[in-house]
Design goal:
Length: 155
């Protein structure tokens, strides 16, 4: 499984022995993506817009006004929404990956990063997605689900 680039994760099911025999792909690649990813990008853009309004009020010397306090409250609320949405996406993606491993009766989930490869069109929003995708948290979630299911081990 590889994390990042254009989808949250790409998983390929391989079959082969541990004695150095070549692994054979037994299922088409599964591209794990979440339907709420676009919503996450919109919420992030909203937060950045609110942050710009706060910066403008600071430049105008209105950093201690009631208007500033109201907008700051809106900014914090939007960032909390963004964090909750990102957490939900990570939980759902981890569940999808464990489900895929269970369906194919995988004994091991192997994670790798192909981050050194550059994909065409990985600028702007996609680059933000890659840089903020919390790999460590997803790995922790996978580890929790894998050990609790007992049928799949993580390496």
């Amino acid at each position: 499984m590889d994390l990042g680039v254009k989808k949250q994760a790409t998983a390929v099911v391989l079959d082969g022995s541990e004695d150095g025999q070549e692994k054979i792909q037994i299922a088409p690649p599964a591209f794990v993506d979440h339907h709420a990813k676009d919503k996450l990008f919109r919420v992030k853009a909203d937060a950045e817009g609110i942050d710009s309004r706060l910066a403008e009020l600071r430049r105008q010397g209105k950093g201690h006004t009631e208007q500033f306090a109201h907008i700051l409250s809106e900014y914090r609320r939007t960032r909390r929404k963004e964090r909750r949405l990102r957490d939900q996406i990570q939980h759902d993606v981890a569940n999808q990956l464990v489900w895929l491993a269970a369906v194919h009766e995988c004994e091991t989930i192997v994670l790798e990063s192909l981050g050194q490869l550059e994909a065409e069109g990985t600028g702007g929003v996609t680059a933000w997605s890659i840089s903020t995708w919390a790999h460590v948290k997803l790995l922790q979630l996978l580890g929790t689900r894998v050990t609790s299911s007992g049928s799949t081990s993580r390496r």
